[in-house]
Structure formats: C-alpha cells, structure tokens
Write a structure and sequence with these properties.
single chain; alpha/beta; Rossmann fold; Arc Repressor Mutant, subunit A; 2 domains; 5-stranded parallel beta sheet; about 50% helix; about 10% strand
C-alpha cells in the first residue's frame, strides 16, 4: 500500500473539520494528523506536525488563512498548502497564491476534486479549478485615474467626498440638481461602485481627490 498523505486541516467550523476527517481516510490514501480551529493554531501545528499537505480555510479568527499561509511558508518554505474555502474572488485567490499556497479549491467541490487537488499539491504541482484559472488569466481592468473623469466630474467628486448632498453640490458649482445626478451616476459607473459612500472611499484610496 502506498504511503498515506498526512493532512493538517485548518478550519474554524467543527462540522467542516469533522466532515473532512471522515473523507480523508486511509482507503482514500490520506489521513488527518491534526486539526486547527484558527490561523494561529494552524501555524503552530504545521511547525509541530510537519504534515505533507495543509488544508487551509481563509476566513478564521485570530489569524486569517492568508496570513497563516505566509507565516507557515516563512518557517518552512517546503510546506505544501491547499486553500479550501467558500470564496472564489480573484483578489482572494491571488493573495493566497502570493502568500505561498500551491492550490485553491472551493468548498462546494466534489470529494474526487478534493482528493485530486490534495494529491497534486502533495506532488508539488499547482492545483486550480478550471474556472478560477480562467478568471486569473483574464486581464484586469486598470484602476481609474483622474484622466478617466471630466473636469466637472472631478469637481463633483471632490464635493461628494466632503459629504455634500446633490443640492449642495449644485449650489456650489452653479449647476442644476439634474446635472449633478447625471455626473454622480457617471462617477459611480466609472468607479464601479454602487453608492456615494463607496465612491468616496474609492476616490480617496485612488487619490483622485
């Protein structure tokens, strides 16, 4: 019989850990050697147990999964980590891979997909579902800059960031409320946000005002 793959499971949900322990059994070529309920425990157990593969959730208390991955890799560059999470956003995938994860899998994947991903990571191979790999290969739209906005839109944006209402912006710029609404709608679209509060936050983060 081939040597079992020793797996450390890091997830803050007890039911998830128990479910994985029921799946990762010798008949599937794997065994769970430890369970961590948060990122800090994951770092400690990774150091103590030296598992073959670490299954890492991303959203956990005390230390999140991405921070735990970076800490584990700093202690042991050879550590092989597979993220198992409910979140497939491009930013989270990229952050986890940059921190040192070798694979990324969503929790709604099938058991066979999980086994394949664990075996792949154990062999030192990058493991990503096709849909996530495709998403990462798509070019990302550049963040908007001042050149994306008209001079009047930037005027409106500055006042919006200051918390001014549409009538107040109109009075300050000597334009009608209808024109203000038109500029605000254009600003929200260009910043790809849903409301004025988000627009104000993004505008400041991007140093547009």
């Amino acid at each position: 019989m081939a040597e079992l793959i020793r797996v450390l499971v890091a997830d803050d949900h007890f039911v998830v850990r128990q479910g994985l322990a029921a799946l990762l059994v010798p008949r599937n070529g794997m065994t769970v050697v430890g369970e961590a309920a948060n990122g800090r425990e994951a770092v400690e157990l990774a150091q103590a147990l030296q598992p073959d593969v670490i299954l890492m959730d991303l959203i956990m208390p005390e230390m999140d999964g991405t921070a735990a991955i970076a800490r584990i890799k700093a202690q042991n560059p050879a550590a092989r980590i597979l993220v198992l999470t409910s979140f497939g956003e491009r930013e989270k995938v990229t952050a986890a891979l940059q921190a040192g994860a070798l694979g990324y899998l969503l929790k709604d994947s099938s058991p066979d997909d999980l086994f394949d991903a664990i075996r792949s990571v154990h062999r030192g191979r990058l493991s990503l579902p096709q849909e996530l790999a495709t998403e990462l290969l798509q070019p990302q739209a550049p963040a908007p800059t001042g050149s994306h906005f008209t001079a009047r839109e930037l005027d409106v944006l500055r006042l919006l960031v200051q918390g001014k209402s549409n009538p107040e912006i109109g009075q300050a710029l000597f334009i009608s409320p209808t024109t203000v609404r038109s500029h605000v709608t254009s600003i929200l679209t260009k910043l790809n946000v849903a409301n004025r509060t988000q627009a104000a936050v993004v505008a400041q983060e991007l140093h547009l005002v």
